[in-house]
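Design a sequence for this backbone.
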């Protein structure tokens, strides 16, 4: 009788434990994005003279990496080349937050833009990217970004350059 009571108590204590749920093992994810864009630039040549013009057309080749956990913090960098008029090359380290709903990922982000050849422009960038998955590997990407350049040889003295850019491209998810 004591054996039956012990067996009954041990079975009830086992069934009282919550069921084990499978855990998601974090995995490192990567993407390569190729975009091209342009926009508007505003600044001053010093004094009271202000100007508005189109920003040079640029090409961006970006590498992003993240873990498949939620929320998704994304980090990476891009190589940026201005190809309209005079050419220049820069690097853009970035940090983004990604939220995926169905096939669409929304990514607000911040970055530092550093053009280093043949002239220097340095400043922060705030961006918003929409990534629309076409399949498991490819997606269409659209980005709006605001850059503020306040350091560098290409910034007029006592001035800043504001650039509002749009870019479209394709991402390959590895």
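Sequence:
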């Amino acid at each position: 009788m004591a054996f039956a009571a012990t067996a009954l108590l041990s079975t009830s204590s086992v069934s009282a434990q919550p069921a084990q749920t499978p855990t998601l093992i974090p995995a490192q994810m990567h993407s390569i994005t190729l975009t091209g864009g342009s926009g508007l630039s505003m600044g001053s040549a010093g004094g009271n003279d202000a100007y508005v013009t189109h920003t040079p057309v640029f090409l961006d080749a970006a590498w992003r990496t993240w873990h498949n956990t939620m929320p998704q913090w994304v980090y990476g960098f891009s190589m940026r080349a201005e190809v309209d008029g005079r050419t220049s090359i820069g690097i853009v380290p970035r940090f983004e937050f990604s939220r995926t709903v169905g096939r669409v990922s929304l990514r607000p982000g911040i970055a530092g833009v550093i053009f280093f050849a043949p002239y220097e422009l340095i400043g922060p960038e705030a961006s918003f990217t929409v990534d629309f998955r076409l399949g498991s590997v490819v997606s269409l990407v659209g980005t709006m970004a605001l850059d503020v350049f306040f350091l560098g040889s290409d910034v007029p003295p006592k001035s800043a350059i504001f650039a509002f850019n749009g870019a479209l491209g394709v991402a390959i998810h590895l």
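Residues 5-15 have pLDDT under 50 and may be disordered.
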